[in-house]
Amino acid sequence: MADRKQVHIKNRKARHEYALEGSFTAGIVLTGAEVKSVRDARASIGEAYCLFDNDRLIIRGMHISEFKQAGYAEQHPDRDRFLLLKKTELKKLKNKVKDVGYTIVPLELFVSETGYIKLVIAPGKGKKLYDKRQDLKKKDMSREIDRF
Prior knowledge:
The chain is α+β, with helices and mostly antiparallel strands. The protein has one domain: Small Protein B, Chain: A (Beta Barrel), CATH 2.40.280. It is built from four helices and ten strands, in the order βαββαβββββαββα. The strands form two sheets. Strands 1, 2, 3, 5, 6, 8, 9 and 10 form an eight-stranded antiparallel beta sheet that branches. The chain has a two-stranded antiparallel sheet with strand order 4-7. A hairpin with a 2-residue loop joins strand 5 and strand 6. The radius of gyration is 17 Å and the shape is globular. It starts with 7 loop residues before the first strand and ends with a helix. The relative contact order is 0.25. The model has no long low-confidence stretch (mean pLDDT 87).
């Protein structure tokens, strides 16, 4: 397993757009062709978000490109996919989402050491424009300090 290529697909805008609180690592229900596409790094979580559907957490808007050698199996690149979490984690997330303005944001999609596809998610509240400006000022200040 050491010769396996590590795949880390990140949502770069998430930390800029949302004030995140904690994170959870969830399993994801995929078909065999989707797993092969993710291992080829042919997936995107930039426009994705998570929501609850009958006490099950799903991810919507995640794009996994079709695997060319999949054969006759029908593939849907933008379908909803179930996320696998413990009941206590689901309860925490559900309580957080009930608060006004909170959403569940996918941060990173990766292949674990055991070979499973995992998704890091975090509850977050959308930042206002002035919050984003403050973050950029802090980042610039820390860069200036590091230079000297």
